[in-house]
Amino acid sequence: MDQPTGEIAESLHLITSLQSQLESLQIRVKELESDNAKLSSLVSNCCCHKAEENILARVSGSFGLVDERGSSNSNGGKSRKKKENQTVPDDKVRTEHQYSKIYVALKVMYFGQRFFGFASESQMDPTVEIECLNFLQSEIFKALDKTRLINGDKKNLQYSRCGRTDKGVSSVGQVISLFLRSNHKKPEQSNGCSGEFVPEEPYEREIDYVKILNKVLPKDIRVMGWCPAPTEFSARFSCLSREYKYFFWNRDLNVVAMENAGKKFVGEHDFRNFCKMDAANVHNYRRHITEFEIFPCNERLRQFEGDQLWAVKIKGTAFLWHQVRCMVAVLFLIGQGLESPNVVDALLDVDRTPRKPQYRIAPEIPLVLQSCKFEGLRFMCSLALYVLRSFLCVDARQALHAHLEMECRSYKLLSAIFHDALLSCSLVENDDSVLNSKTRKKAASHVPLMSRPTEPSYEERCIKLNSRAEEQKAYRLAKSRTCSNKARS
């Protein structure tokens, strides 16, 4: 009996010891909580902490913008969860008209190859945007919605874009303009301007549009810069000039003949034979080309006896539908020796050649919208922003440069893979006897442009459109009469 009694006593002693330790730990926890409250009070009153919160608020945006982790935050980058069924007082509710807005021009880069499959091959109404451009715009608007830079009806954004690029065409200088939210406070007397406000110093303390949008955009679309613009600005109609580049491999082309023929494009001409005609919406086909140049690039294909990459640069005030690709297609025929440079003079003379000869336009992938020029606009990428506590530099320009360099390296790797496949293909044995036994097809002979079938002229297209309009009018009139007769009976 003594041994069980001793075990019970030992257990009671252990329980008493543990209770004493628990009480001691609870007292220590209360002391630490008190110290933590004192330190939090000191930190909240510290000027450095307030300055850091202000900087972080500018990075993530003061309107609940997306941070680097993809979460929506506000109040200096701290997440704020709303409780379910939580009511907000009426004086705290903020509509889109209570936010300050600024009219902004954005310079956009996009790689057009991914948009190739989103273009319709069927005949479409020329007044409708090309589907790949609609897809591109939808990607941009999705990013604007996600970052809450826009809110409400898109009709109030006063959106415009500089150029309509074809399916598959890339750009490093496309420009769009629209109203975006601003960090600047709405003036007290807005005079019914719905918060639309252009500050005197727009670069200071403004939202980092480049950094914020590039975080959520697909990797083949990037905002290169931004600039505040006057409200009467239009990315389409305020553009002074547009510059295109078309890249091509030499492949024994006569570049001198191409350059001599290309210089004939410079000046103001009627380019109806160098475009896809849209008689329903375009009635003036005169365009002014200010510069034309053909020059070699740095890229070479050593495995193809040093075949070098060249580029055609064409600059003008405005361009017609497929104009650049039609011009380049004719230049390629001249470079191959199939056409004389004088064919450009014949195609530019619409009195002599009122109907466009049928020919295939140049492929879309090598075409790039290089730049769009505007008066008084200076696009910028955000300056370096330092975070006080971690001493980290957040620079949108550095991030953009790193992204483009990474993409360039990725495509270089793909090129190396295809090069290895090409070398492997050359090692496969070929049985020439099988090829010699078969009858080889005779190469198709070239038909000169001026001897080919032609498309309808502008006047013929207008007559057809008017005839179609009259037929539709007569059909509607007859249908209305039939309906009225049935109503009477």
Can you give me a brief rundown of this structure?
The protein is an alpha+beta fold and 489 residues long. The chain has helices spanning 2-44, 47-60, 131-146, 209-216, 255-262, 323-335, 343-348, 396-426, 432-437, 458-488; strands at residues 101-110, 160-161, 170-181, 221-228, 241-249, 267-270, 286-301, 307-316, 367-373, 385-386, 393-394.
Write a structural description.
Strands 1, 2, 3, 4, 5, 6, 7, 8 and 9 form a nine-stranded mixed sheet that branches. The longest helix has 43 residues, at 2-44. This protein has ten helices and eleven strands. With 489 residues, the chain is α+β, with helices and mostly antiparallel strands. Strand 7 and strand 8 (307-316) form a beta hairpin.
